[in-house]
Amino acid sequence: MSQAAPGRAPPKRREWSWRSQAFRGVVYQIIAIAAIAAGIWFLAHNTMENMRVRGIQSGFGFLTTPAGFDIGEMIISYDALDPYWKAFLVGVVNTLRVAVIGIVLCTVMGTTLGIGRFSRNAIVRGLCYGYVELFRNIPVLLQLIMWYLLFTEVLPAPYEPFSLLGLIFLSKGGFAFPVPVWGTGQLLALVGAVLGIGVAAYYRRRAMKRFEETGRVPHLFWPTVATIFAFSFAGWMLGGAPTAWNFPEQGEMSVTGGGTVTPEFMAVLLGLVFYTSAFVAEVVRAGIASVPHGQIEAASSIGLSRGQSMRMVVLPQALRVIIPPMTNQYLNLTKNSSLAVAIGYPDVVSIANTAINQTGRAVECIAIIMLVYLTTSLSTSALMNWYNKRAAIKER
């Protein structure tokens, strides 16, 4: 009879018996998956059959037919003769535009407010506290409507806008500002800025590692700014150093030229940012409060200022508490952007509503909306989970 090699445990044999807990677990999971799949199939089949009996058309074939309606605000080119799928694409891009910019702004604003809650200045602490209590307790839909009414009722008419040095205009028609004429130089400058951010992040990681090993306070802000600027300037020079700008000009009826954003976009963006920033501030405050006070005292003992100890000692340790609930706030901001339909911003929900009214394909359009928000939410969660694991490994 053969014996197992010394020092090595004999391999466990898989028991395909009902007495095995692992086997029963696999069977239960298979039954659960089959039941869910059968339920989904039954609902889909029943819906399609009822629609067929009532003579209601179904399917996604309408996506290739001309949409027949215009969209008031878009980044990519679109015409009323373009198919429905391109109209939905415009709506998705508009949704992502609000979500991405909103996430960046609410992160910066919420973090600043959260840190401000620990300020030694009572006025600053009171203002931060008042902001949080005000904006997080007013429904976000009301805030969107408030900003929309502000931009469309309070601001002056498009033919007599507020002007700053004749370069920036603000009116009921929107916000107009100078933009560079896009070309190779601007593209290479953008590429250089991205590379500069990567190099600056690498420098910051190495500087923080040296700080943890030696206790010497590194210079982070100005080297980071200089690196990003240098790479952007190099890309701009390689692209021919273009200097052409498109300036807005006040006409008889409205402002023309330059870059513009509509009142609807500004209302959605500001409403979501101000609302979500209040929750982000509380997340940051809770994360900072979770760091033991002894860490702050240790940072002071090696000569760090209050600001340096917050940036280099407290916030890096608070990230393990901040990141998971921060992910929820990012998801909430993205999903709350669907409320933009209430003020006429052409996001994916607004485009879907128009498509439903014209084609009657309610099930298909709702399915597209669900798929868009499911994809964006899962992508955001995956990115934040990756960052959370990276931060946890770095902390060890």
Verbal overview:
The chain is mainly α and about 400 residues long. It has eleven helices and eight strands. Strands 1-2-3-8 form a four-stranded antiparallel sheet. A hairpin with a 3-residue loop joins β1 and β2. α3 packs across α7 and α9 packs antiparallel against α11. The radius of gyration is 28 Å and the shape is globular. The mean pLDDT is about 85.
Query: How confident overall, as mean pLDDT?
Result: 85
Q: In oligomeric terms, what are we looking at?
A: single chain
Helix content: 55-70%
Helices and strands: which structural class? mainly alpha
Order of helices and strands: HHHHEEEEHHEEEEHHHHH
Strand content: 5-15%
Q: What is the number of strand segments?
A: 8
Shape: globular
Number of helices: 11
Report the biggest beta sheet as strand number plus sense, adding barrel if it closes: 4 strands, antiparallel
Low-confidence stretches: none
Taking Cα atoms only, what radius of gyration do you get, to the nearest Å?
28 Å
Distance between the termini: 48 Å
